[in-house]
Amino acid sequence: MVRSEIIRDIAPILRDQLVVCNIGLPSQELHMIDDQASNFYMLGTMGLSSSIGLGLALAQDKTVISIDGDGSVLTNFGTLPTIANNVADNFILLIVDNGSYGSTGDQPTYAGQKTSLAAVAKACGCETVIECQAEETGAVLKAAIESQKMTVIVSKCESGNIKVPVITKDPAVIRDRFMTEVARRNA
Amino acid sequence: MIDAVEKEPSIYHIPSNKEDEGMGLCAGAFMGGKRPAIIMQNTAIGVTVNTLVTLTQFYRMPLPMLISYRGELKEPVACQVEMAVHTKALLNLLNIPTYHFHKSGDEEELDAILKYTFMCNKPVAILTDATFWGGY
Ligand SMILES: Cc1ncc(C[n+]2csc(CCOP(=O)(O)OP(=O)(O)O)c2C)c(N)n1
Ligand SMILES: [Mg+2]
Fold first, then answer.
1. Interchain pair B24, A52: CB under 8 A
2. What is the CATH number of the domain that holds A161?
3. Number of structural domains, chain B?
4. What's the CA gap between B34 and A54, in Å, rounded?
5. What is the pTM of this model?
6. Cβ A150 vs Cβ A83: under 8 Å
7. For residue range A43-102, what is the model confidence (pLDDT) as tens digits?
8. What is the C-alpha separation between A119 and B106, in angstroms, rounded?
9. How many distinct structural domains can be found in chain A?
10. B109-127 pLDDT, tens per residue?
11. Complex ipTM, two decimals?
């Protein structure tokens, strides 16, 4: 399974939650597969999906899922101790670990070699860390939402990309639509 | 200042490991309905240019940046001057409204600056130098 197949699989679960989606192909795939006002698409700023998601989770009550990438977590490793020490039980970090910088052409990352992101997350103090195979992602994600415990999921999948259109929505429109939906769901 | 922030019950303080990480947290908090701000040093301008332009400015979000302006008068560490000489130039280049607290009393403008920041939805820099905070 590649990332786009995981996103297709979990889209029916995601639409009921607030989602912060990582830069590049993950956002484009989610946008193509199931565009929702409850999705915040990152168009830049590699590395901050987890930080934006944690900030949002701490600021309001609804469950927030940050879809992140192995390469992006590697570029902002500092996020893991911050997450561990600022527990938000409405926060789920879903790291799609395809072992590559997929969006720029699948250059290999260290996560696909010796470095275990799940082990790093645990070492940083994250209490609930689940590594799973791509096929199990939906079930693991569902259980994490129901558990109401802050959870880091590392979903191991194959690298590879599909053809997908870019997002042409204006960023301020994406942000405004998302904020309106966040406020509506919290009303 | 961090002590004061920690003591203030209406402020939720999250220490972050890198300044761009802090800006990501602020972006999320803003979208969740809060009024975020970041406390950092001017050296951080060097590491946050990408985040300031691709997140804060691109999505038109407000962000007051309360900045310790190292490398100004009274600075004991020569290396800090190297970033100080670029600080205002970079902020200017990024079209970031910039205020400079140099003398005691300058802080009286803080409330107006915060209102301005959340009115115009931009990152805004507040540089506070050692003459202002009486450092070293
Ligand atoms: C500072 C910075 N460096 C590099 C890039 C280019 N870039 C955008 S997405 C990406 C790969 C992200 O990889 P990963 O987080 O693993 O996500 P994947 O695309 O594999 O799902 C890279 C290198 C960037 N946007 N910013
Ligand atoms: Mg990847």
1. yes
2. 3.40.50.970
3. 1
4. 13
5. 0.94
6. yes
7. 999 999 999 999 999 999 999 999 999 999 999 999 999 999 999 999 999 999 999 999
8. 49
9. 1
10. 999 999 999 999 999 999 9
11. 0.87
